[in-house]
C-alpha cells in the first residue's frame, strides 16, 4: 500500500474573509427578521443554523444533531456539548452574542409549541422533523446566493472561516 503524504493547505476557496462572513450574517439576519414579522419560520431557522456554524465553528453534523439538553446557557460559562467526529464528545464555549441568539431562539420555539425536552433537537423543520445534514448544506447554498457570495463555499467553510478569523485576532492556535 502506498503511503500518501500530501500536504493539505487552506486555500482561499475553503474559507470566507471577515467581510464576507459579515455580509452573509447581515443578509440572513435581515431575511430572518422579515420572516418573523410575517409569521414565517424558514429564515429564522436558517439564521440559527448559520450562526451556530459561523459563531462557534461547528461541523454541519454537530449543528444537525444538537439537542436542547446539550445547551448550557449561563452568563458565567456558556457552552454546548456536541458529539463530534469519531463519536467524541466535546464542549464548545460560545460568545455572549451566540448565547443570546440561542436563548431568543429557544423562546421562539416555545412560542411555536415545538418540543423543548432535553432530548429534542434544537433545529427542526416546520414539520417538526430534525434537519438532515444535506438540508443544512442546501440551506447554506441558498444563504450564499441571497448574500451574493461565491457558490464555491460549502457550509464547512464556516468552520474554516471561524478558525481563520479567530487565529488572525489572537495569533494563538
Mean pLDDT figure? 92
Structural class: mainly alpha
Strand order of the largest sheet: 1-2-3
Helix content: 40-55%
Compact overview of the structure:
This protein has six helices and three strands.
Task: Describe the structure in your own words.
The protein is 50% helix and 7% strand. The chain contains six helices and three strands, in the order αααβββααα. The model has no long low-confidence stretch (mean pLDDT 92). The longest helix is centred in the first third of the chain and has 20 residues. It has a three-stranded antiparallel sheet, with no helix packed on it. The N and C termini lie far apart (33 Å). The protein has 173 residues and is mainly alpha-helical.
Secondary structure layout:
Elements: H1 18-37, H2 42-56, H3 60-65, E1 71-72, E2 79-83, E3 89-93, H4 96-111, H5 133-147, H6 156-170
Antiparallel strand pairs: 1-2, 2-3
Helix pairs in contact: 1-2, 1-5, 2-4, 2-6
Distinctive features:
mainly alpha; single chain; globular; 173 residues; three-stranded antiparallel β-sheet
